[in-house]
Every structure is written in C-alpha cells, then in structure tokens.
Write a structure and sequence with these properties.
Layout: H1 12-23, H2 45-52, H3 56-63, H4 72-81, H5 86-95, H6 114-122, E1 128-132, E2 137-140, H7 142-147, H8 161-167, H9 169-172, H10 178-195, H11 200-212, H12 214-221, E3 231-237, E4 241-251, E5 258-264, H13 270-282, H14 287-294
Antiparallel strand pairs: 1-2, 1-5, 3-4, 4-5
Helix pairs in contact: 2-3, 2-4, 4-5, 8-10, 11-12
Length: 297
C-alpha cells in the first residue's frame, strides 16, 4: 500500500518491522544496558536478530524489502521477539504473504441487500449504518444521520468515516477525544491495507489523507494496526451535548465485506435519555428529507 514518500511498489513488511522494532523498549525484553549510546529508540537490528534467532543480514534484507519469502516459524520468532499484539501478529503474517500467483482481484462495487436496508429502516431506536472494510458508508438510517452527519448531503466518494474524521471539521468536532479516535481509524485502515493491497479505492483514500493531513501521515508511518473489537465512543453533539455510546459491530453473512454498525447507550443512563431525545427530534423533518435519508445511494 503506497502513500506519498513510499518506495515504488511499497515495502509494508520492512516498514512494519522497523516501526515495531523502534517502538520496543530494550529493557522490556530483558536486554541489559551494554553502555553503548543508542542513536535511535528501540531495538537495534542485531538485538532483534538475536532474540528471533536469525542472522543480522536476514533482518536487514527483510527491512529493506530485498526478501519477503519468510517461513511461518521465522515469522513466529520475529513476532515473539517484537512482542506483537494479536492484531499486529495477524498483520505481520498478512503483509509477509507473497505466495499468491496472481494479483488479488479488485473488490466489486458493493450494494446493500434490500432486506438489510429494511432492517436499518426498522431500527427506529438505534442509529445504525452499513460499512464496507474501507469504512465507506453504504447505507444508514435516520438515527445515524442525526447522530453523525447528513450522509445524503455528501457526494458518494466522501461518505467514508475515516475521510470525515480527518477532513470534515463538523464531523471532527463531534469527538470528545479526536486524537484517540483518529489514531484508531488509521490503525483500522492500515490493517485493511495489509489485507487488500490492490484495492485502488483504498490506495486513493490513503494518498488523499496523507497529502492533506500531517497527523495522518505521521500515524500511518507508525504502522499501528487494529482489528475489530468492542468500542465505546464519546461525542459532543450540537443538539444533545456529551453522550457516550457503545459501538456494536455485526458481520453480514451474505456480504462478507460488509458490517452492520449500531450505536447504543447503557440502560437507564443519561446517554440513553439523550439518544432517545435526539431520535425523537430527528423524526420531525419533512417527509421528503426523511425518504432521502432512508433510501440512499
């Protein structure tokens, strides 16, 4: 996955290894202080080689992108040496896989099944939407539009949660802790880039964000990755004030690249009362606007 400043063809494996090596405290892995001045943070290449029981030359070749054919035992040894979290370990194995004989096919244009749209329309008390793996918003209900933004008013190519998080001032201001939310977005996108390096739409999105936002460039280069997990987000909404919601994520069996995302509040909480008020308030627009929000794309 290329972005401005990347070498031609990309070197995700080498860049990831360097980033994780630089982020690891030598004392954390039990290495003694040898008295030598460390010019850069983290592990030296020879220390990683020692911990993973491989040669220094092999680590150099991996980091420089001169070899990508890595056996599973060596990948396991590198992951153990770098103390990778489960998401990071999965990403390492993904970007090291170069055994495919043919390039992965481009994802087809995604459509939301009518039955799923009907489900969204019926979720009157819960803001919900359907996303693809790039975090494009494919469909939404009235509650999601009231909580986040009027997706129907946006051009199709701008209906992407990560793009909105970085480039839309109103959407960005919704987050009570924008840096944390934005870094999570980058980690999710980086994980997906490892899975689908030939996704041109994803490449274009990364390129646009890298050019237009310096924080995105910095965090993308850090190679942090994150897979699905339970999320709680706090928003500062212009109508209902501060609200903390659980983000529920459900796979769509008939469309493996899609997920249903719903926003709920703990029972009998202030956030639940605020969310209920917002949904009642959003039910008042004229019928034309309501229909446009429901039957999008």
């Amino acid at each position: 996955m290329d972005y401005p400043g990347s070498p031609p063809g990309g070197n995700d494996l080498g860049e990831f290894l360097r980033a994780r090596r630089a982020a690891l405290d030598p004392h954390r892995v039990g290495l003694p202080d040898d008295g030598r001045l460390r010019r850069v943070p983290g592990l030296r290449r020879e220390e990683l080689a020692q911990l993973a029981h491989v040669s220094i030359d092999y680590v150099v070749r991996l980091e420089q992108g001169r070899t990508r054919r890595v056996s599973r035992p060596v990948l396991d040894a590198l992951a153990d040496a770098l103390q990778l979290a489960p998401d990071e370990r999965a990403y390492l194995f993904t970007v090291a896989d170069v055994t495919q004989a043919t390039p992965a096919r481009q994802p087809a244009e995604q459509k939301v099944d009518p039955q799923l749209r009907q489900l969204l329309d019926g979720m009157h008390g819960i803001p919900a939407m359907v996303l693809n793996r790039r975090m494009d918003v494919l469909a939404w209900n009235r509650g999601a539009a009231a909580l986040l933004t009027d997706f129907a008013a946006l051009p199709v190519h701008e209906r992407n949660l990560i793009r909105l998080t970085f480039l839309d001032d109103a959407y960005r201001s919704l987050y009570a802790d924008w840096p944390r939310a934005a870094r999570e977005c980058v980690a999710v996108l980086r994980m997906e880039a490892g899975r689908n390096p030939n996704d041109q739409a994803l490449t274009d999105l990364v390129g646009e964000l890298a050019v237009r936002d310096p924080d995105f460039r910095t965090w993308w280069a850090s190679h942090q990755v994150r897979g699905p997990r339970q999320l709680t987000k706090t928003y500062r909404h212009p109508v209902i004030g501060t609200v903390t919601l659980d983000v529920q994520q459900f796979c769509v069996d008939t469309q493996p690249d899609q997920q249903l995302v719903a926003y709920t509040a703990p029972p009998d909480s202030r956030s639940q009362e605020s969310l209920r008020f917002l949904l009642q308030w959003s039910a008042q627009p004229d019928e034309h606007t309501a229909n446009r929000n429901r039957h999008n794309l």
